[in-house]
Amino acid sequence: EQGLQLLELGGSVEEDCIRIARCFEATRQRCCRLEQDGRRAREQLARVEAERAALEVKLKHARNQVEVEMKKRHRAEAELEKQERKLQLVLELLMGEPWGSEALSREQCSVLSALAGRRLGAPLAPSRRSSAVDESCQSLLSHSDISYDRTEDDVVRS
């Protein structure tokens, strides 16, 4: 466009050629800068994509580890409940038998009475539970309701 305008203005042919050559040189330099900018942008994109891929691998491993730990916790809690039920049955049997209170000392009877008075499913020793999760309050959501969002996994990559 500038080249056409220069030709229309008139003047000597040599001056017009020099102006056109300068315009071409300016355009060439601009193209070189844009090409360098494009190359830098592609390199940065490659680095960011590699970092994203590494983070996705870490996320996948973390999700798998969370799943494994949740399964372990569920198994441990199920075992704890099973043992608590057994203990409750033993306590009820001992406290219900007339010979049970005769064979046990007063202190043992007192401890057994206290244990038998507990409701089924209450924790035996709160200190045994993980201190990272406050389980003393009743919540609308239990630990089994914990989940993580996998919607990010379905993002279409172009």
From TrEMBL:
One GO term describing the cellular component: nucleus
Give the GO biological process terms.
mitotic cytokinesis; mitotic spindle midzone assembly; Rho protein signal transduction
List the residue ranges forming a coiled coil, or say none: 38-93
State the UniProt keywords alphabetically.
Coiled coil
**Single Gene Ontology MF annotation:** GTPase activator activity
Name under which the protein is recorded: RGAP1 protein
Species of provenance = Emberiza fucata
